[in-house]
Amino acid sequence: MGIIAILLLAVGLSMDAFAVSLCKGMAMKAFNRRQACILGLYFGGFQALMPLLGWLVGSSFSDYIVAVDHWIAFALLAFIGGKMIYEAYTPVPVEELAELKMDVKELLVLAVATSIDALAVGVALAFDTQTNIPLTIILIGIVTFAFSVMGAFIGNKFGNAFRSKAEILGGLILIGIGVKILVEHLFFA
Length: 189
Fold this sequence. Notes:
Layout: H1 3-27, H2 33-61, H3 69-88, H4 94-97, H5 104-125, H6 133-158, H7 163-187
Helix pairs in contact: 1-2, 1-5, 1-6, 1-7, 2-5, 2-6, 3-5, 3-7
């Protein structure tokens, strides 16, 4: 996977964290850089860790399913992307947006919840022998950190207008990468 595809993957994966950060930013009375950076560290850290874990798991059994690996990667990415698009059209109850909490337990839950899709992507990456895994993991973490901080800032300034658009964009990017993997393996391998 080339650098552009890796960056698009990182952007796609960061959209859940961006959407949550928008909500957290809306709950800030005034933008707080420290809290925004804490969000970024949690979300970026878990978004980087989960594909590594997925890649380790996927690598351990990739020899057994190499004949269908592109279909697995496509299915995982299409499912995750479709789920993100579906969630973009699901209203978020106002109570969930109402207050800003920065306790460790909640941040851990949010970080894990927004990075589960990255775990599945990591499994899919195990079947792509051309991908530079360390570079991919680092870029996913950095991009997610940046999008999380930006999300908190934008949420604080502009409200909830961008949440569903971010989810849709992220979903479309992941589906597009899944289609790219499938097409490359079916027609150019």
